[in-house]
Structures are given as C-alpha cells and as structure tokens.
Amino acid sequence: MQQVRGETSSLEIERILSAHTELDDEHRSRLLTALATLQDDASRFQLVAAALDQLPDEIFLKDRDGHYILANRECEFSLGLPPGAMNGRQDLELYGEAFAKRFLAEDAEIFANGRPVFSQPFQWTLPQGGVRWNQTSKYPVFDKDGQVVAVCGQVRQSTEAMQWRVLLEAQIDVLEMLAADRPLGEVFQRIISLCEGLLEGFWGSILVLNEAGSAVVEAIAPSMASEYGDALIGLIIDDNVGTCGTACYRGVPVYTEDILTDHKWDDYRVLVEPYGLHSCWSMPYFNADGTVHGTFGLYSRQPRLPSEFESRCLALGARLAELAVERERVTAQLRIMAERDSLTGLPNRSAFSEILARELASAHAEGRSLGVAVLDIDDFRLVNDRHGHTVGDAFLTAVSARMVKAIRPGDVVARLGADEFVVVLREAEGRDARGALHEFLAAIRKPVDMPRLRLGTSMTAGLALFPQHGNNVQELLSHATTAMNRAKQVGYDSDEVYDPEFSRQQEERRQRIEALRESIATGGIDLDFQPLMNLHDGSIYGFEALARWQHPHEGRLGPGAFIPLAEQEGLIVELGGAVLTRACREAARWNRDFGVCRSVSVNVSAQQFSCGEIRDQVRHALAESGLDPALLELELTESMLLDDECTAIAIMSELKTLGISIAIDDFGTGFSNLGALARLPVDRLKIDRSIISDIETNDAAASIASAIIAMGQRLGLRVLAEGVETRGQMEFLRVNHCDDLQGFLLGRPMPSADVRELLSGRSPQNSGLGPQGATSRRTAAGRQR
Q: Is the pTM of this model over 0.85?
C-alpha cells in the first residue's frame, strides 16, 4: 500500500473502528493494544491495514485527487478484485459512470466544507452473484493545520434491514392496488414484477386453477415467453406434475433445485429446456375455504435452492396472491349484494334498470319490440299482518322461484321492492305480449302450500310496450306502473295494457290525493251529524259523525268520493284521527254551550284499528277536547275484529279502560261469529240497514232483526237499528223492544251549525223528533250517510 499523504492520527483510526458496532470487544481490545505498542507510523499503518482487512465492512481512504490510498479486503471483494488492486485507482476506473459520479460528488462536498456525508441505502450486485444493500458514511481527515487532506469511508451492509423494508414496501404497493379495486389480473402481474425486482435473475409466474382445483385455467408469467404460459393451460393437477403442479396437489411449498435432474419434471422437461431454466420454487395460495386456488412460482437459470430472503419473497408473492383472490371474492359478493335482492335472489331495481337499458338498446338495433310488465301481489300486507313477516318472506321467496320457472328463454324477472315485481317479455308486441303475460300470470297464480297453511296468489299487472309506449327505462317502467294501478282500480287479479289516457287519469288522481292530504292537514275535512234516538222515550241521545270533504273546487263531497282513495293511498289512519278529534271537539262544545250531554259516535277504519293507532288517537282527542269519555262511542265492523281476535280484544280492552263505549257496526252482514261476540268488550250492536229495509216485506229479514235484538239484550248489549226510513219499520222495532234507531225517518246527516241550532231549541224540528213525529231534515239533494 502506498503511504498516507498527510497525517492520520491513531485517534482517527480508533474513531473509525469504534463506529463499527459489529466488531466484538476481543478484537477491538487486541487491535487497540497493538496500536499502542507501535513505534513508527509505517509499521502502525501496516498493522492497521491488516486489522481492517478482518472487518465485515468496507473501509477505505481516498486522497484529494480521488486515488484510493487504503482499501480493505471487503472493498476489493465487493468489486471482485484481487488484494491491492484498488490502490492508486479512482472511482471512474472501478465503478460504472452513475456510481462514480455520485461518489465523486460526495467527496467534493467533504473537501469543500469539512463535514461528513451519509448516503441513503443502495442496492449493490456482487460479481460473484447475489444482491446486498449498502450504506456509506464518509468523514473528512484533517492534517495538523486543520486542512482536509483525505476522505475516510465506511460501507456498512444493511441487507437484512433493507430486505424487510423492500418486502414491506412491495406489500404496501399491492395492498394499495387492492384498496383501489384494480382488476385481479393486473394485481397478479404487479405481484410478479415486484418480486422479480427484488431478486436478480428470477422470473415469476402465477397459476390459477379451475373451481374443482383439477386443472390450470390461467397462467400469468409476463417476463417469460408466452408459449410457455400457453403450454400450461389445461395442465392436469396431480402429484409429481412439475414443481407448481405438485405444489397445487400437495398444498405445500415445493422446491426444485435443478429441473434437469428432478424426476417431477420427467414428463415436462421439454417445456423448459428451450429457456435454459434450472431451479423452480413454487408455493400454493388458497381460497377462503382452504382449497388451493393456484401457485406463485419463481424460476432461475441457476440450479440452486432459495436463500432465506428468496424464501421470504416467494411466501410474500403467494400471500399477496391469496389476498388478491380474497378481495376478488368479497368484491364479487358485494357486487351480487348490490345487484341482487337479498330475499329472493332476483335482480333488484338498480340492476334491472341496467338490464332493461341493454335490452332496449338491443331491441332498437334489431328493430324488434318487447314488453315490460309490472306486477303486484294483491293484499300481500294481509299475509304479513295475519301470519307474520317470516311467513311473508317465505311466501315471496316461493312466488319468486315460481316466476323464474315461468319466464320464457330470454325473458327477465326482477323484484322492484316489497311485493312488486317486473318482467321483460322479449320479442312481443300487441296482443302477443299480453298473451305472454297471461301465460306467465297463469303459471304463478296457483296457491302456495306452506307448513299448515295454503296461501292464494292473486296478482295485478300492467303492461307497457317498446317502442309504442316509451323508448327508455324510466318511461316504460312508469307507464307499466300506471297500467298496473289502473288494473287495481278495476279490480284485483287483473291486468291492463298501458293507454295514454291512463296517465291523464293518474295525474288527476295524484292531484286529488295531494288535495286530500292537504285538506286532512289543514282542517278541510268537515263533519255531518246524524241523530241517534232512544226508541223507548223518543229522546235524541247522540249523533253519528260522518266525514265530508270540503273540496277546494268541487265543493262538499260525501265519503264515497274520498274514503276509498284515502284507504288506497295510506291516508285513512291520518284521516280517521282528524275526524275523531273534530267530532270530540264538536260534542264538547254542545255540552259546554248548551248544557246538554249528547254523545258522538265515530267510525273507525280497519287500518286505523289493526295498527293500534286508534289508542293514541282516542287519548289525544279526549285530552285535546276535554270531552267526557262516556260521551264517545267508537263504531267497529265485524270483519276487523275477527281477523285476529286476541289482538282485537287487547286493543278494545285498553280503549274501554279510557271510559268510552264500543259498538259493532253493520252487524248481521259478516256471518257473525257469536262465540267471539260473547268475548268482545262491546256495548252496542248496530243492525245493518240492509236487514232493516226488508223487515216489512220479508219474513226472514224480520226474523233476523228480532233475533239480533233478543240476542243483544240477552248479552246485556243495547241494539240500534240503522237505516230506518218508514214508520212501519220503526213500529216493528218498538214492538220487538229495539233500544235505539237511526235513519232518514228521524233525520238526515246535518252540518254542525244545524246541530247547534237543534240543540239550542231554536229549530222547529226540536219538538218533532220523537216516536210520533220523526221527519226528514233539510239537506242538499243526494246527500248520503
């Protein structure tokens, strides 16, 4: 070695040695002892150089001209040079241009400012093979005058730490692709390229098996010849079928040191011979259920087994492939959940819109027509109400399965929501489309048998045709729905083909619904009151409240003009609550203003009662009006009480605790369950007008009426006859000891103002209302109950 220019003190060499943490205490002690015993600089330098040769790090000195004046054996090993070959040479002679320029720039910085320079880790490929990571620290060497005369460098290997760092960065890179929902094939290619970048001279591949795990269906190997990947497609998985086939079969990693001598390659060696491949290492990756999905493999032209780092890379590639497959599975499930109805498995509304858009584009291009039918299960709500949602869901599932079987090839059925479905009928127009719809409906209208239960399947449908009734998804669905709504107005279990007139009528209906909703909210629902008379003493003991709609344009309308609409559109509960509150207010005013106690009877709708809302509505009406509960009577029909007797009794009992009375309206028309009647907490029976109208001319009607009166009284109930219009009817009821009556003979329904006039004593009818003087009230022509 040539002599050091300028002086390098023993303390400087000691500082270099102490910076190396991997030098054990014994070597450090022996080296420092040797330094202390040396007498001259030359011998000290030679001994220090010999000591530096024993270190695992690269240690070097360079003068101001960039010549190496000291380089230990590790420096020469990293370049593949013999001992002493670096002395006197410069970086441009030893390294590639990029590295040399980088090293010279670092040296120039040290000579310029006298401060150390620390480089970032960089990858270095050894001439003997293999890759390691180096990190250089360079320090200035000063003479006695404080001038920088040389650069002292230390190159430490950080291979293991950097390998872990690179592996982590590679994993993060792939995970970011997974988070961005990149295609599976793209992710596989990225996994391979990352591992190839980590390992010099290796080529990666990912094999994908079929669902049965019996054969290769896809081979991804971007750095290898496409012919090799193509040759693997269809490869049958078995033991000793190459390295990757064996790994798939066994479900464990398989390492082939040399393909040319391994018996697993005996039948497949011809595939790799043209490419000069020798080693092959393969690791299986798995599905969520533990079955093998495929393998990740690494090939090399060098016959050898993997190092620890290479094994890590192989395991990382397999694990990332596994994550990618699992992400693909979860994404597919989420896609199905987003596009499929969770209960029936049919396409949902969103997916159907896309399907129909494609069908329309195809039909337009081919010049053909198609039909779109919207279907609704009639009275499905009653299935849930009577049998529970579990039965309702099972019923929907059964009907949906029947629909799938009923459609013709090329047709599509989907669930729009709740009990509403839609069907696309391809290549059908006019009567043919309706005929196809009729065939479809006939196949699904059969009863559905369930455990201990048989449910009828009645469906109403509306059909719209492309292109006659619309050119896009929204128009066709809207017009088919309009046709279905029209069919429901005609009657359940029917169907209609769209007619533009339906849209006009539907718009009128929509406006009427909005007007009714507004009237309910703002007090536009008025009341008429029909007198109720005690037949024993002729007194008017109360009135029945009857809803009237003060329409903003059509004037005062009877219940037939809006009650069915309110029931169909879900407004009846709100309407019933408004009528109840208004009736209680009026009755409270009669009693407060005139000092008379007159009761008020209010009809309750089936929906209002079955949902239980009536309980809170009664409490609110009584509290808000201040009416004595004893003066309020609710009228319920037989049918709403017998659907669920236990629930009905519970609701009625709770209402009775409030102090009100309950009457059964229209009694005698519902094939009365007398056993249930005995259990219901009822105060009054109201004989239906259809029976009363015939008692003078029909002996059977007279017998039924007298029987109801007698039965009611035996049960301790008061009995009222509705629809009394003649004195003969009234006389029959008196003779048969009926308690109360109501009808045109006594008085027609009258506005609240007329009731107040009557109760004040100013009305001439006040004295004419009695057993001998019943008369009709002044009302608008045609006004009914």
A: no
